[in-house]
Amino acid sequence: MKEVTFYDIEVYPTFWCICFVDTNDEKYYFTSDSQNLSKLHELVKTTCLVGFNNYEYDDIIVQNIMKGYDNTTLIYKLSNEIMMGEKYWSELDSFDLYKNCGTRNTALKRLISELGGNVQETPVPFDKHHLTDEDKRLIVEYCFNDVFGTKEAFYKVRNTQGVLLSETSKT
Fold first, then answer.
1. Residues 19 and 51 sit within 8 Å (Cβ to Cβ)
2. Can you spell out the DSSP letters for the chain?
3. For 125-165, how does the pLDDT look when each residue is reduced to its tens digit (9 = 90+)?
């Protein structure tokens, strides 16, 4: 079975970021400012991605970025289409904590709160077009907070429900 990597993404009109945390708490992130996405391709191809509500959003965005559609305008347009109900399919090897673990009626922030974690709300409005370097830093920090919350929730659910990735991942 593949190693597990937890992840989340954030999409803005002129910026996107993808944050990953592995089982040893090693952190990786990629942004629309990144020049080299080879490590992104390696992580996605060699690990099982674990996210929260990722099947119908994050997986699709990541798959499109990996296919070269990394232009911020196109990614933001795709993000909005998904949010408006447009359906897409992803072939990424992933596990969706929201879909597979009985957490469908629970938001990630609520799970993080119930686990005693640090709940953060986005520090930068999602429709902000002109981001400063500080805005981008805050977005990445916020994204990592959600990734660590997803990781904690996954282990809590796995320990209480006995969830096996091999039984519920898409591939």
1. no
2. -PEEEEEEEEEETTEEEEEEEETT--EEEEETT-S--HHHHHHHHHEEEEESS-TTTHHHHHHHHHTT---HHHHHHHHHHHHTT--------EEEHHHHTT-TTS-HHHHHHHTT------SS-TT--S--HHHHHHHHHHHHHHHHHHHHHHHHHHHHH---HHHHS--
3. 999 999 999 999 999 999 999 999 999 888 887 765 555 55
Residue 61 pLDDT: 97
Burial of 134 (0-12, 13-18, 19+ CB in 10 A): exposed
